[in-house]
Amino acid sequence: MSLNQVINELINEDPNVGAIAVLKLDGTLLFQTDNWDISADIQNIINASKGGSSIIIQGVKYMIVENTPERIIGTNVQGQGHIIIAPFKTGFLVTYIIPQVGPRDALFNVQNSAQKLNKIPI
User: Given 5, 29, 38, 101, which is the most exposed site by the fewest CB atoms within 10 A?
Assistant: First the structure.
């Protein structure tokens, strides 16, 4: 399985996932969907993995509602959607979750995809 296959599978399996990016631990951007440019926010994402109460991605502020070793969940209080950051061995799977659902509606699929990324050389 390749990085592109994992991403395509997640997009096809979960319509609640509106955008995806994959980062290496050193901040290298490996992939992002065409509808999302998080290149200016990479350091914010890395910093969120170390703690904090909020994160800004593409100018949208998300309040961190859960931060565990398995996931970081953020939600925008103005109803602009959610983020799930799922760490894997060599990086982070960063997903935007549409505002019409809660972040937990996509959590299983996002974390499952991060586990798949553990199995491929990145």
Answer: 5
Domain boundaries, the chain: 3-118
The helix or strand, by DSSP H or E, that contains position 29, with its residue range, turns out to be strand 29-32
41 DSSP 8-state letter? G
Two tokens, residue 1: 């399985």
CB 108 within 8 A of CB 73: no
Cβ-contact 55, 82 below 8 angstroms: no
Confidence label for 121 from pLDDT (cuts 50, 70 and 90): confident
DSSP notation for 66-93: EEETTEEEEE-TTSS-EEEEEEETTEEE
What superfamily does domain 3-118 belong to in CATH?
Dynein light chain 2a, cytoplasmic (3.30.450.30)
Q: What is the mean pLDDT of residues 82-107?
A: 96
